[in-house]
Every structure is written in structure tokens, then in C-alpha cells.
Design goal:
CATH topology of chain B: T-fold
Radius of gyration of chain B: 24 Å
Largest interface: A-B, 49 and 57 residues
Order of helices and strands of chain A: HEEEEEHEEE
Strand content of chain B: 15-25%
CATH superfamily of chain B: ApbE-like domains
Oligomer: heterodimer
Structural class of chain B: alpha+beta
Structural class of chain A: alpha+beta
Shape of chain A: rod-shaped
Shape of chain B: globular
Radius of gyration of chain A: 23 Å
Distance between the termini of chain A: 75 Å
Strand order of the largest sheet of chain A: 2-1-7-6
Number of helices of chain A: 2
Largest sheet of chain B: 9 strands, mixed
Number of strands of chain B: 17
Number of helices of chain B: 10
């Protein structure tokens, strides 16, 4: 029986190149999905710390008169020496794009990257 | 037989090529590597966030922050001793700059159109309540009556650039400042050739587009905050592609509690007390920041039904959230909104 194979070597190379290219384009999209929450702490206009928020996160950051607590998949201003304490009243941030700021101390926190939305009006 | 195999081969090759093209397109449209270029500043007692898309924007961002700061300290602030408004409040009459005058004129037009629901002469009444200084005392009712009697935008006299207040009257541009800052930002972005940008001045948002189409940008999702004191998660998302300003007024931001009742910072100039119209928040979407900001306060004070004429007059869209967790969205943006909080219900707009 003299059956010619369905694909020649060159065809297989083309298919493999196509699949690999597709994978290369697809991987970053996959990794930028909603599962990763990263909180960014900004003091005086400069990013001072990025914290990955996972179920096991438990971290306390003291900076410029405020205490920021990252716990589990949320982050919040625990304490502040500012007079109005609006930052402390802002509560927990846990969705992408959410932010809170202590304006008198010029410290703010936001959750990076929002697949859901880009910015919030309040 | 051979024909069938050739057909199969073509199909498989085509599928592989299409797969590559589709993933490449998804990659370039969503561009996971392409993050916005973010800058942070502080002005008007608020945080300013500037997100640019494409290019190096440090210089534009710095210009933006310093110009907004100057707008506040030299023109609009009632507290900064070198500001035009401070001087006007002190002297009772003042010749305003050519830049400041149109802001006052446009603000007065909204005061008039809203029949005083927005009143920029509310200065001494709002200082009495002291929400900006975190006071938690309900002022004496006789004091409220006295301060209220000084309010009245219609008592302002304009003569060229000279603005004259009536006796004891004080201007407070607090309800409009962030919106005016967004208008200023729009001019700066346009002059600097910015393609796309997102600016937040303490929660009042400017979406900026230079009007051209770019394959890498299909607009923004702007979230409206859930209007609760203990929940700042997104309530809904509005998809927007062109230059607009979003302004929200809510009873959850500046407030104090006394005897189980919450007193918020949006005062009704007619009563002298915090506005009670059954609303938790109002978000306005308009072409102008001054209009968006002015209308969000005016509509909060007026309530949903009475706001319709004002919204139509200014060609603005609105999202009202009432105390029963109902969300009302005007027709022009209804199709662009997606509810994100299950505790709220979108209601038909009658």
C-alpha cells in the first residue's frame, strides 16, 4: 500500500510555528487575568511599594504618618495622624482600580490594573 | 482519496493560521504589556491621578499638576490668601482676571438654571457647618437662618470684570473646583498633543481623546462607586470612548453622625441643612467639567424628578442612586452601563 502521509515535514513545521506563535500571544493575556491583585502604595507622587494580595497576605506598612494594612485580598488605611481621617474611613480596597488616599500625608493606595474598569468616580 | 486528504490538509492549515491571527489580534487589542503611564500629584486637597496611553508624559503630567495647583491657590480657593476668591470674599468687591470671570459667569448660569439648588454664595453657611474642618456639631438653628439669609446668587452684581457681593456674602467654589480643574486639564492635554488620557481630580474624572482612532484603544470603563460609607466597591461601569467629564456627589464622603442621624456635606441652600431628596448619589456625565460638577450638586439637591429639565438644558447624562438601592440611568448612556453590584437594581427611567 503506497499511501502518502497527510502532512509533509514542511506542513508540520508550519503548523507548529502557527501554534507556538498563538501560544506566545496568548500567554500574557492569560497571566494578566483577574486572579492577580496588586496593591500599589504611593507616597508624595512616588511608588514606594507594591504588594501582591493573596489569601495569605498579612503585612503592615508604616509610612509618613499612616499605617496601611494588607490582609488577605484587601488593603486599607488602619491608622493615620491626619485630622480628618477620611483615609481610614475609606474602608477596605479589594477590587482592581479601587483607590484611597490620605491627602494631608500625601499617601495613597490603589489596586493595580483593572480588567473590570479603568478608574472610579466618587 | 487524495482529494479528500488535500482538503483535510487545507482545513487544518487554515485553522492553525486563523488561530494565530486571532490570538495576535486579541493580544494587540488588549495589549497586556501596554500599561498606562501613571503619574500622581496633589492639589485642591485631593489626589490627582493622570494616566496616559503611549509616549513619555512626565512633562505633561508635571505641567498638569502645577497648573491645577495654581488654579486652586491663585484663583478658586476660599482659603488661600493669594486667591482671587479669597480677596473677593475679604473685600466684598474685586476685579477678577479674564480667566476667572468666565468660571464665575458659567457657575452663576447653573445657579440660575437650577433655581438656587446650586448656589456659589453658600460660603458662610458651609463654613458654619464645617465639614471641611471635620466638625461634628449641628449648628444652632438661629445661626443657620442668619447665614442662610446671606446666601443668594442673584444678589451678586457684575460690572465688566468687577464682581460685587452683597453684605456678608462669601463665595464658595468648592462644588465646582474639581470640574474646572478637569476643564483646565483638557486644555493642557490638547496643547501638548496627548492622544488618550484619563485624569482624576479627587474622583471627578476626565476621559480625554484627541478624536482620532487608534487600534490600541477602544475606550475606558469608568466605575461609579457604591454609595455606602463602608463599601467603596464599583456599583456599575460606564463605557466611554470620547472626551467627557464624570462628576459624582454623594452623601457618603464628608459627614458626621449625631444621635443616630447622618449629616452629610451637600447642603440645600433653601433650607440651610443637608439635602434630603432620598438620594445616595448622583453621577453626571457632561462635555464640560464645570457643568458636570455643578449639575451633580444641583441634581442631588433637586432630587431625580426635578432634575430632568436641568439635564436636558445642559445635554448631560445622569445616574441617580436612591436610598432603596434603585439605580436610574438616563437614556443616552443606558446601553453603555453594566451593573457590578448585586445589592442594587437598575430601574426603568420614567
Amino acid at each position: 500500500m503506497n499511501k502518502t502521509p497527510l502532512f509533509r515535514k514542511s506542513d508540520i513545521i508550519i503548523i507548529l510555528v502557527c501554534l507556538l506563535t498563538a501560544l506566545v500571544f496568548f500567554l500574557p493575556t492569560l497571566f494578566s487575568s483577574d486572579r492577580n491583585l496588586t496593591a500599589v502604595i504611593v507616597a508624595d507622587g512616588e511608588t514606594v511599594k507594591e504588594i501582591s494580595l493573596t489569601d495569605s497576605t498579612d503585612e503592615k506598612i508604616e509610612i509618613d504618618g499612616v499605617v496601611i494594612k494588607a490582609q488577605g485580598r484587601s488593603i486599607y488605611f488602619e491608622d493615620s495622624d491626619c485630622p480628618d481621617r477620611i483615609c481610614v474611613r475609606s474602608g477596605e480596597l479589594s477590587s482592581k482600580g479601587e483607590s484611597a488616599a490620605c491627602v494631608p500625608n500625601r499617601v495613597s493606595v490603589y489596586i493595580k490594573g483593572a480588567d473590570n474598569f479603568d478608574i472610579m468616580t466618587y | 482519496m487524495e482529494k479528500k486528504e488535500t482538503k483535510q490538509k487545507i482545513v487544518i492549515l487554515t485553522v492553525a493560521i486563523i488561530l494565530t491571527i486571532v490570538t495576535a489580534v486579541i493580544f494587540f487589542v488588549h495589549d497586556p504589556f501596554h500599561e498606562a503611564d501613571e503619574h500622581f500629584g496633589y492639589a485642591m486637597g485631593s489626589e490627582i491621578v493622570a494616566c496616559f496611553y503611549g509616549g513619555d508624559n512626565k512633562e505633561t503630567a508635571d505641567t498638569l499638576f502645577s497648573e491645577i495647583n495654581v488654579l486652586d491657590t491663585d484663583m478658586l480657593s476660599a482659603k488661600s490668601e493669594k486667591s482671587e476668591i479669597y480677596s473677593l470674599n475679604e473685600k466684598g468687591s474685586q476685579q477678577l482676571s479674564d480667566e476667572a470671570l468666565p468660571y464665575i459667569n458659567s457657575s452663576l448660569e447653573i445657579c440660575k438654571a437650577s433655581q438656587g439648588a446650586l448656589d456659589i454664595t453658600i460660603g458662610s453657611l458651609s463654613s458654619l457647618w464645617g465639614f471641611d474642618s471635620s466638625s461634628d456639631i449641628i449648628p444652632d438653628s438661629s445661626l443657620i437662618e442668619t447665614e442662610k439669609s446671606y446666601c443668594g446668587y442673584e444678589k451678586i452684581v457684575l460690572d465688566g470684570n468687577t464682581v460685587t457681593l452683597s453684605e456678608n456674602q462669601k463665595l464658595d467654589m468648592g462644588a465646582l473646583g474639581k470640574g474646572i480643574a478637569c476643564d483646565k486639564a483638557k486644555d493642557i492635554l490638547s496643547a501638548n498633543g496627548t492622544k488618550r488620557a484619563l485624569i482624576s481630580v479627587g474622583g471627578t474624572i476626565l476621559t480625554y481623546s484627541d478624536g482620532k482612532d487608534y487600534y490600541w484603544h477602544d475606550g475606558w470603563g469608568i466605575a461609579v462607586r457604591t454609595p455606602e460609607t463602608d463599601d467603596s466597591s464599583p456599583l456599575l461601569r460606564v463605557h466611554v470612548t470620547d472626551t467627557k467629564v464624570f462628576s459624582t456627589s454623594g452623601d457618603y464622603e464628608k459627614y458626621f453622625k449625631k444621635d443616630g442621624k447622618r449629616y452629610h456635606h451637600i447642603l440645600n441652600p433653601g433650607t440651610g441643612y443637608p439635602a434630603e431628596t432620598g438620594l445616595k448619589s448622583v453621577t453626571i456625565i457632561a462635555d464640560s467639567g464645570l457643568v458636570a460638577d455643578g449639575l451633580s450638586t444641583a441634581c442631588f439637591v433637586l432630587g431625580r424628578e426635578k432634575s430632568q429639565a436641568l439635564l436636558e438644558q445642559y445635554n448631560a447624562e445622569a445616574i441617580f442612586v436612591d436610598k432603596d438601592n434603585n439605580v436610574y440611568i438616563t437614556d443616552g448612556i443606558f446601553g453603555d452601563c453594566t451593573l457590578l453590584n448585586d445589592a442594587y437594581t437598575v430601574k426603568e427611567y420614567e
